Amino acid sequence: MDSSQFFGISSIAYILAMVAYIAYLVFKNSTVGIIATTITSVGFVSQTIAFFIRGKEFYDIGQMGIMRAIPLTNLYESLIFFVWCLILGYLIIEWKYKNRSFGAFITPIAGMALAFIDISGMDKNIHPLIPALQSNWLLAHVTLSFISYATFAISFATAIMYLAVTTDNKKSGAYIFWTVTLGIFLSILIAMGIDFLTFKIVVKTPEAFIKSYLFKATFRSSSGMVVLFSYALSGVFVFLVWRYGYALKKLIESFSISYELLDDLTYKNIAIGFPIFTLGGLIFGAIWADQAWGRYWSWDPKETWSLITWFVYAFYLHARFLRGWRGNKIAIVAVIGFVSTVFTYLGVNLLLSGLHSYGGM
In the predicted model, what is the mean pLDDT of residues 315-333? Predict the structure, then answer.
């Protein structure tokens, strides 16, 4: 079996696990919870094996030494590695806190990443590195960046859970913020699914998918009526999430998850991810840029948005420790930080051009 087959097994496992964890959250059936954990563990082992096999495949093609044969050189591999780190972080949390309800909020992020890979026509082939990417700093820069992204994703999930648990008034800013954010997240996921069901995707790159297919069946349809209906339906969906978001609060509370634990997990993941992002994403990235292009900083779109993301999380830590922010305000900052992270990771790659276009990174 080659790496793609093991990656396929892990993708199916994670999507099944997402469904199982959501079912566990709703029905509170311990057997379903055990099944969800088992499926997730199988997917994680399969993905780990796939990474080793793909590394061997990459080494056989490139013949550039083991340190340059790490499969983290394009958008596909980086997304897969992000999912691997995310699932590893989740399994550690589940093992430490003996609570599976977190899986219903963390595995959907992995599921969305995998769905994007499958519907976007992303190139999964192995290609030799161009000279600009043939550096050991690539391994340090990319690996640490995506480890930090995974911790930020977990902090996003726990921050959303915190806001759900601590907000009662449907007219409060915090309640409106988290329900609208969750509603938009789910609306985008549904719209991408409609694209997949409507069109036969024939493009080979995510950039071509964005241009030719993304939201073409809904928000970017050639029919004005379809566009109007899509936005109206999305608005209705967001309204329903706002209207019945209180039910999610009851579900989370039924698992005896305290808001103190959610706040602590949000903080700990950001406290771990921020220095890793600072070192790997910014400092090592600058060193790599100097070696590849002769300058440490060029205000490339990804560099600029990485700095914006850094400032958001720096503000989170500053506000928490020096200004004494707690509660909903600080949780909202954590959510905004991950939105910025997603745009830094995917939005810049797919919507803007720059030096990081090499290898789809």
Answer: 92
Determine which of 11-25, 31-45, 284-298 has the lowest per-residue pLDDT on average. 284-298
Does residue 54 form part of some domain?
A: yes
Give a yes or no: residue 62 inside a domain. Answer: yes
**Do residues 148 and 277 touch, judged by C-beta distance below 8 A?**
yes
What's the structural domain count of the chain? 1
Domain that holds residue 40: 1-103
**Among the listed residues 116, 214, 106, the one whose alpha carbon sits nearest the alpha carbon of residue 158:** 106
Residue at 16 is within a domain = yes
> Is the predicted pLDDT of residue 66 greater than 60, yes or no?
no
Q: For residue 122, give the nearest of 113, 109, 111 by alpha carbon.
A: 113
Q: What is the pLDDT of residues 165-194, one digit of tens each?
A: 998 788 888 999 999 998 988 888 788 778
Please answer whether residues 153 and 344 qualify as being in contact, where contact means their C-beta atoms are separated by less than 8 angstroms.
no
pTM of the model: 0.88
Mean pLDDT throughout 87-102? 94
Cβ within 8 Å of residue 273, ≥6 positions away: 147, 148, 149, 150, 151, 152, 155, 313
Q: Compute the half-sphere exposure of residue 176: CA atoms within 13 Å on the CB side of its CA.
A: 3
C-alpha distances in angstroms, 357 versus 45, 309, 350, 351?
Answer: 31, 19, 9, 11
Cα gap 145→223, rounded to integer Å: 41
- Rounded CA-CA distance 151/273 in Å is 6
Rounded Cα gap, residues 272 and 268, in angstroms:
6
Task: Please give the pLDDT value at position 121.
Answer: 64
Is the residue at 19 inside a domain?
yes
Q: Are 6 and 47 contacting, i.e. CB atoms less than 8 angstroms apart?
A: yes
Nearest alpha carbon to residue 316 among 358, 273, 260, 282:
273
